[in-house]
Design goal:
Length: 115
Amino acid sequence: MAEEFHFARTADRLQVSPGRVSQTITALERRNGGALIERSGRSVALTSVDREFYDELLPAYRQIQRAVGNASAACAGLSGVLRVGFTPHGPVTSSCGQRRRSTSVIRAAPSSSRK
């Protein structure tokens, strides 16, 4: 809800019904003892409490998403490291890990050091 500001779009994103989104928000509001969103007609806005709640939870949520993605990739046999360096004569590659399938997924990440 904090990213969509719309019950139906939030429900689509979470693959649940809009009613389930509303019930979950209501349960969180009861648990926290106050409103998390301001409902007015067809518009929805975050309260300052909800904005802070969202900001505090976002790093943990993103870490959970990464962990699930990493586990899925490992189960599919897509793991390891591919290092690519460039020389005046073209790219040089070195791979670590095993590839059990004919398809590879490459995830770009910044280098931890520059030499």
